[in-house]
Amino acid sequence: MDSKIKIAAVSYLNTKPLLYGIEKAPFLKDIQLILEYPALIARGLQENTIDAGLVPVAAIPHIPGARIISEYGIAADGAVASVCIFSRQPIEQITTVYLDYQSRTSVKLAQVLLEQYWKKEINYLQAPENYIDLIEGTTAGVIIGDRALIQRERFPYVYDLAACWKEHTGLPFIFAAWVANKDLPADFLREFNAANAIGLAHLDEIKKANPFPAYDLNVYYTENIRFRLDEQKQKGLDLFLRYLEEKQPM
User: Fold this and answer.
1) What is the rounded (10 degree) CA torsion for 175, 199, 232, 104?
2) Are 97 and 110 in contact (CB under 8 A)?
């Protein structure tokens, strides 16, 4: 029987600083690190095929026994750059929005903001793999992750969802947190939390290992992404989850 703790994460640029220390930590021999889409990580926790993962926070209410196990994650206090609605027309003219299939949280955030912040009724479409090519006219699309950073120069209208959330609520936004579906050993949790912090002291090394001409990674890692989940970010998370709880299924 495999006794390793199964940990899943995405391999986006925004997770590189967190994974840096985890991949180098002494306890790596005790874990199995799996790289996957955010939505599939949440499914793994729901189906108990993994023990912990960096999951989109909108999935937390749907994971039996869910508990956040680290004070590190992926958050923003203002513009995040890599979670945006892209369009060729201003948001006031948009009637249809493709929802990126890779992350539950980003699409739920887009739906909350379109309803509450922009006060629009929108026709939502599940995005096929080539949906970025279908963003035309009054049809927009939610794009996340590295692909969003690449697309920033392609579209005339880019609406940063974390910035809009901050303007709407006054609070930061947590996109993903390390979540377990069961109790894990206390010594492992201490080591795991400490390992998350290691990469934040090696950002120059991480940037050098991941050249990305489409966007300034120094700006991304030091201004856009907030890796420490403090009390204000928890308040933002609580508000977002409350919004989702109050809404009918979308």
Assistant:
1) 10
2) yes
By C-alpha distance, which of 52, 18, 50, 56 is closest to 37? 56
Residue 126, domain CATH? 3.40.190.10
Residue ranges making up the domain that contains 95: 83-169
250 occurs within a structural domain? no
**Do the Cβ atoms of 198 and 47 come closer than 8 Å?**
no
Q: What is the rounded CA–CA span in Å between residue 173 and residue 180?
A: 20
Are 209 and 98 within one domain?
Answer: no
Tokens at residue 97, please? 């929005």
Q: Are residues 161 and 176 in the same domain?
A: no
- pTM exceeding the 0.85 threshold for the entire prediction: yes
Q: Which letter does DSSP use for residue 4 in this model?
A: S
On whether both 136 and 20 belong to a single domain, the answer is: no
pLDDT digits 0-9 by tens, 82-123: 999 999 999 999 999 999 877 788 999 999 999 999 999 999
Query: What are the tens digits of pLDDT across the range 21-68?
Result: 998 887 777 889 999 887 789 899 999 999 999 998 999 999 999 999
